[in-house]
TrEMBL record:
Residues 146-306 form the Methyltransferase FkbM domain. It comes from the Eukaryota. The keyword Membrane applies. It comes from Sinanodonta woodiana (Chinese pond mussel). The keyword Cell cycle does not apply. The chain crosses the membrane at residues 7-25. InterPro entries: EGF_Rcpt_Signaling_Reg (IPR053202), FkbM_mtfrase (IPR006342), SAM-dependent_MTases_sf (IPR029063). Pfam families: Methyltransf_21 (PF05050). Keywords: Membrane, Transmembrane, Transmembrane helix. This is Methyltransferase FkbM domain-containing protein.
């Protein structure tokens, strides 16, 4: 015998189903909006960034590390550096390490930040929250950002400094950018130099171009600058150091996060790094301007014991990074 239900029961049942479906999809839409705020919309309210954190997300005060400096105003360190450049001394030469420490590195600022957007915590294009989560929100780490620009715009490291109390190193070769960077009062060591594409220090021709500045001393680089729209040739002489040399000067052989964005020479710099002597846990590396291409970059970095986790790109082509993590990393 078939049981007949009153018409009101059918109507009530349909209403309940509609409510459940609406609730399910509204939750999914909210999750998608949060994800979009994490990775694409830097102007989104900070609440989107705060919502899913498992640890404190607010600016924290900390005392940055210090190293002893022995600067002698009568010492002609540039002449001494020229001799080391000409001799192509190895990356761990004690004279090189001492000169970098005493005459090229600037210590962290003790002054309050002077930022264009002081209330913001996250300044990157999505790299920072991803790396933060994959490093389990650790505090007290150490970062390196090469291609630091002005210390704020698009920074992949300012969050770690402001929120996670990390020490760090900012590398910027363009003296105009560096002058602005210094006004931000970052709590990190800074150096107005470029990372060497060789396993020794050297002077190079560098073409200034705000966020498109790069070494300009080989056919590949010259051709790249000539192809770029609205990028005039405006060259200077810049001192370059191997990354390993700078880190030895800081006494820092563990790097929790390395951001490498130098407009085309990323692969050449990576080839100079002794990964057996440095413990670099995660990296974000720009791939679009190098002649070797994305797949070659992946292959080379993965051969050093890393896995590719994510490709980050922005709709306008302004961001093209691959994020790598050391295999077997445990936090």
């Amino acid at each position: 015998m078939r049981v007949k239900f009153p018409q009101t029961a059918y109507i009530l049942g349909a209403f309940v189903v509609c409510v459940l479906v609406y609730f399910f999809f509204s939750q999914k839409t909210h999750e998608t909006n949060v994800l979009s705020a994490h990775f694409f919309d830097q102007s989104a309210p900070q609440g989107y960034f705060l919502a899913e954190r498992k640890s404190v997300v607010q600016q924290q005060n900390f005392v940055p590390m210090v190293i002893p400096l022995k600067r002698n105003s009568s010492f002609d360190y540039k002449a001494a550096m020229k001799e080391l450049n000409d001799a192509r001394v190895p990356m761990d030469d004690p004279r090189l390490i001492q000169i970098i420490r005493d005459y090229y590195l600037d210590p962290p600022s003790q002054e309050p930040y002077t930022l264009e957007n002081p209330g913001r915590l996250e300044y990157s294009n999505g790299q920072t929250p991803f790396v933060d989560s994959r490093l389990n929100y650790i505090e007290g780490g150490f970062y390196v950002e090469a291609g630091a620009l002005n210390g704020e715009k698009g920074s992949n490291t300012l969050f770690f400094e402001k929120v996670r109390k990390w020490n760090g190193l900012l590398v910027e070769a363009d003296p105009d950018n560096y002058a602005v960077l210094k006004t931000k009062h970052r709590k990190a060591f800074t150096i107005n130099a470029c990372l060497s594409t060789k396993k020794y220090p050297n002077m190079v021709t560098f073409n200034k171009g705000f966020n498109r500045g790069r070494i300009y001393d080989n056919k590949e680089a010259i051709d790249w600058v000539n192809r770029e729209k609205n990028l005039p040739v405006n060259t200077i002489q810049a001192q370059c150091f191997p990354l390993y040399s700078i880190l030895l000067a800081l006494g820092q052989t563990t790097v929790d996060f390395f951001s490498l964005d130098i407009e085309g020479d990323e692969m050449h710099v990576l080839e100079t790094i002794p990964f057996d002597k440095l413990n670099i846990k995660m990296m974000t590396v720009e791939f679009v301007h190098g002649a070797n291409g994305e797949e070659t970059l992946r292959s080379v970095v993965e051969s050093k014991g890393y896995e590719s986790l994510l490709k980050v790109q922005r709709w306008d082509g302004g961001v093209n990074d691959i994020i790598f993590r050391k295999k077997g990393l445990i936090h």
